Amino acid sequence: MQHLWTLAIAAVFAWPGEAPAALPTTPAQPEASVRADEPVQVARRKKRKKKRRKKKRRKKRGGTTAVAPAEPAPPPPEPPPEETGAGEAGAEVDAAAAGDSNESADWGSSDWASPDWASEGGGATTNSSSEARLEETGSDGAEAEPVEEVAQEVTPAEPYRKAKGVAGAFLLFSPVYSGVNRNFAYSPENGTSDNLRPYEASYVSMVGGRLEFYPGVLLGVSAIDVLGVRAGYRMALGLKSAARTQPDVEYGTSWNELDVDLAGRFVFGDAMVTAGAGFGMLNFNLDVPGSDPLSEQVHDLGYQYVRVGVDLRYNLGELGVLAGGAFRYVLGTGELGDSVFPDSSAIGFDANAGVAYQVLRFAELFASFQFTQFMHSLTANATYDADGATDRYLGGQAGVTLFF
Prior knowledge:
The chain is α+β, with helices and mostly antiparallel strands. The protein has two domains: 2-136, no CATH class; 165-403, OMPT-like (Lipocalin, Beta Barrel), CATH 2.40.128. Helix content is 23%, strand content 39%. The chain has seven helices and eleven strands. A ten-stranded antiparallel barrel has the order 1-2-3-5-6-7-8-9-10-11. The protein is elongated.
């Protein structure tokens, strides 16, 4: 009777298609599968707790941890199907195998993430966070002191500023009109041989111009804005000469002057000082025929000299007060020094004083007096006998200066 009840119960709970041989073991397997799965989950949780403790201890020591490349975590194991018989036993075996594989492939285990694995593998590299951690810590694991970054203030260069008026102009052009008197005389007067004639000219009209250029001002370079080049030229208009004994006989006469120099212009408030050094020429020629007895008594002059001088200006509002002077070292005197007195020498100087008044933003009027003198030291010879000579120029000039 008991055997018949057992067969009936087995027929009720038996799974279709399964062998009856597995029926005696089915009642105890569901409980066994539940108990077998529970220790696996508990063991996995204990593993993860150990991993977290090791990570915390490494952070305290300040060492670096090599982390393996992140890979997708394996999918969680599917819950075992609720079944009886031999199928439940197979599912239990599969779940146990899946649990073992998940536990063995735990990417967060300390064995996989240990520094020994990173050094022996040779192909793994640390990520950006571990590299930053290494830079912040020293070789002994101690925290490095933070480096304070000091911001340097860069002062922008001040814009170039030039002085007002002519003192800050890069280009100055001055058309000039001059009226000059000339007086040339030997010492003793007319020489002891009585074959040397003096020369006098009263109020000779001359026209010319003067140009100044300062490239540093044009370029806006303060280091060289004081340096410039100056040039001036003037010539006599319609000049003719005649002997006092023969006033009706006139001789063509030319008179011209040229100066070129390098200048340094320095401004001190309302005052301006301009120093210059350069080369100059002054030519005075009389066109006397060789057959005229006067040709042996009047001689041409051609001065060549080095000029070094200083010009001063002081501004009183729109009015400027001018003064200046220069020394002229004479290199040659032309015919007088070449053929008449071969062993002669000469020196010279000049001085000027005047005023200027600014009438426009870019223009001013000026007027000045000028004085120039050359002194000759002569050595007498068989034809001409004189100890020296003086060549003096006195006059004034006026004009307008345009400056930019």
